[in-house]
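pinned: reference chain
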Amino acid sequence: MNEINYEKLSDQEAKDYFNKNYNISYYDENLPTPSNELLFMHYILSAIIYAVAMLFILFNPFYVNKFANYDITEIVLTLYLGYLLIAPIFLFTFKSKTVYASHSIEIINYILKLIKRQGLKKNANSAEFIQWLTPTYKQKQSLILYFIKFFFGPQLLLWSFQHYQQIIGQWNKLIYANQILKGHRLDIFSLINYRQIIFILFVQIMYFIDCFTYTIGYCTELTIFRNRIRTVESSAIGLLFCLACYPPFSSATASIINWEHNDNVFNIINNPTSIINWICYFIAAFLIFIYVAASVALFTKASNLTNRGTVSIFPYNIIRHPAYATKISLWWLASIIILKNLLLNGKYVETAFYILGAITWTFIYYMRAITEERHLLLDPDYRAYTKKVKYKFIPFVW
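pinned: its structure tokens
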């Protein structure tokens, strides 16, 4: 699809062009109320696609091993049964015109074309075969969209459970620490122990909010939530840099480019009571808070590799990529301890490789931001947003 110079168009012309050529959730408001046949087709085809995805998730060794210690299998089945029971009520009651932009119908139409070999010449050469095999723009977007939902959704649900269990564990530690201190005077070492327990509890609560918010984003796409997907990242480089940061692909990335850090300990100075350590903990807590605030600001729009509409409330009214900026800053702060120990032990080669790994991972996240922004700039609303919020990563600097 050819690029368009939005600067030559009026705001309304730019929006119209984007909606008609890129926005996969767009439909003509003048279309009639969808027929029961179309509603039923959307419902059945969606149910089939979700069933196939559910079976893949429940029997894939990658997910089976991760879900082994949790009740996620039951939750996945419950969510699917909930869809089967609740979706037709909403579909046939409200008869939303969004079914005219059904991703499920697009995918099934593409699969049927392949099965029936529709449009394939008998003596097609390789170029003609590839052209026939290539899905339409909306079909390609829908295929990648469902891959993103089914790849990230279960993992975010799992991480939500893991952080929830960590919260329970830390809360029990806090109760136990209180019981130990009953009738005793609070000394500096008890205070330091409290600091570690409370800080980890804070971190787990924040990350639970983050993961649960994204789980909601991946599991929903409703007009009432204002999170209909407009476009999906489909470039190879955009998908590559994002997927490289998540399991199972992140294991391969880390095996080549290792960067270890501990986000729970910030005792930069050996003396745990040092004011420098206290400052580092406060900085880390602030960075984590901003990181999670970015997820909460997105709320139902939260998901990777998709455009669900532009958000411009805090912290997105300060910089355009607050999550990437704070996450990388936190990791560099956590790396100071490791770098310090490497240098003190004279491990200069290891130090050089560690710094190289840190720079490489920083570059990966930088490229995630750049490719994400390139994708979002297709949307005139995001273009307008970039004119209001000029800084990508550092306020008033960059």
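why pinned: The radius of gyration is 25 Å. The chain has 14 helices and two strands.
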